[in-house]
Amino acid sequence: MQMNPFKAVGIVGLGKMGSAIATALVKKGTKVYGFDPNLKESPVSGVTLVNTLDAIGKESEVIVIAVKPNLVVSVLKEFSKPSTFVSIAAGVSYSTLSQSAPKGSFSVRVMPNLPLVSERGAMAYFCEDQVVSSVERLFYGMGTTTRITKESLMDAVTGLSGSGPAYVLTFLQALAEGGLQEGLSYEESLSLAMETIEGTLVYFRTLRKENSNLHPMEVRNWVTSPGGTTIHGLDALERGGFSTAVRDAVRRATERSKELGKG
């Protein structure tokens, strides 16, 4: 179902994620106003850079707060006009957002990830019922959105999908280096590794449409022959602690998100 984009959205902080969201919004035809005191010109074509937070508040229907966690409270307190404030800061609680924003505002806590620029983002959010439709409109066309009904799980979202692209890219590089070590050129290895990762995910997603209970390990077994190459490769992964290391990465990133929330 097509959703009409907002006419104007403000973004405070045009770093990597703020710029990614701005880029995706501009693609949808949304007017985007940006504020970032560290920039003299917008890093994203189509974004109008303004000099004050008041200008952001005056022109925007929704305001995305994309600054470092330790700056969120001070930024919100600079606004005088109530609005819908969407924070993407890790660890900053919903209650902190609500207490810091102007009276009468709506607050939203969101954890997006960078693939949203390519319309393949994984976004989870926590908010009041009244603004669910606004959040869905804001991120429509950027990927998958999931509403989290228990705020404490937002830290796990941060550890999994928020930080997840870095884990995947690390795995990608390791695969490419493995091919390089065995004699392939780096470009050959990287190309094969990228297509292998993407192709496998597309294939598994297609299978899940037919059987929503299908487990990844079941499909893995299809390509794991007795005494074959794959089982030897999997054995090396497990001896190296691969699965445990990935789970630990999610756990540690989750813990860090909680630590950031404590200031």
From TrEMBL:
<feature type="binding site">
    <location>
        <begin position="66"/>
        <end position="69"/>
    </location>
    <ligand>
        <name>NADP(+)</name>
    </ligand>
</feature>
<comment type="function">
    <text>Catalyzes the reduction of 1-pyrroline-5-carboxylate (PCA) to L-proline.</text>
</comment>
<dbReference type="GO" id="GO:0004735">
    <property type="term" value="F:pyrroline-5-carboxylate reductase activity"/>
</dbReference>
<comment type="similarity">
    <text>Belongs to the pyrroline-5-carboxylate reductase family.</text>
</comment>
<keyword id="KW-0560">Oxidoreductase</keyword>
<feature type="domain" description="Pyrroline-5-carboxylate reductase dimerisation">
    <location>
        <begin position="151"/>
        <end position="260"/>
    </location>
</feature>
<dbReference type="InterPro" id="IPR000304">
    <property type="entry name" value="Pyrroline-COOH_reductase"/>
</dbReference>
<dbReference type="InterPro" id="IPR029036">
    <property type="entry name" value="P5CR_dimer"/>
</dbReference>
<dbReference type="GO" id="GO:0005737">
    <property type="term" value="C:cytoplasm"/>
</dbReference>
<dbReference type="InterPro" id="IPR028939">
    <property type="entry name" value="P5C_Rdtase_cat_N"/>
</dbReference>
<feature type="domain" description="Pyrroline-5-carboxylate reductase catalytic N-terminal">
    <location>
        <begin position="9"/>
        <end position="91"/>
    </location>
</feature>
<keyword id="KW-0963">Cytoplasm</keyword>
<dbReference type="GO" id="GO:0055129">
    <property type="term" value="P:L-proline biosynthetic process"/>
</dbReference>
<dbReference type="InterPro" id="IPR036291">
    <property type="entry name" value="NAD(P)-bd_dom_sf"/>
</dbReference>
<protein>
    <recommendedName>
        <fullName>Pyrroline-5-carboxylate reductase</fullName>
        <ecNumber>1.5.1.2</ecNumber>
    </recommendedName>
</protein>
<keyword id="KW-0641">Proline biosynthesis</keyword>
<keyword id="KW-0521">NADP</keyword>
<dbReference type="Pfam" id="PF14748">
    <property type="entry name" value="P5CR_dimer"/>
</dbReference>
<keyword id="KW-0028">Amino-acid biosynthesis</keyword>
<dbReference type="Pfam" id="PF03807">
    <property type="entry name" value="F420_oxidored"/>
</dbReference>
<dbReference type="InterPro" id="IPR053790">
    <property type="entry name" value="P5CR-like_CS"/>
</dbReference>
<comment type="pathway">
    <text>Amino-acid biosynthesis; L-proline biosynthesis; L-proline from L-glutamate 5-semialdehyde: step 1/1.</text>
</comment>
<dbReference type="InterPro" id="IPR008927">
    <property type="entry name" value="6-PGluconate_DH-like_C_sf"/>
</dbReference>
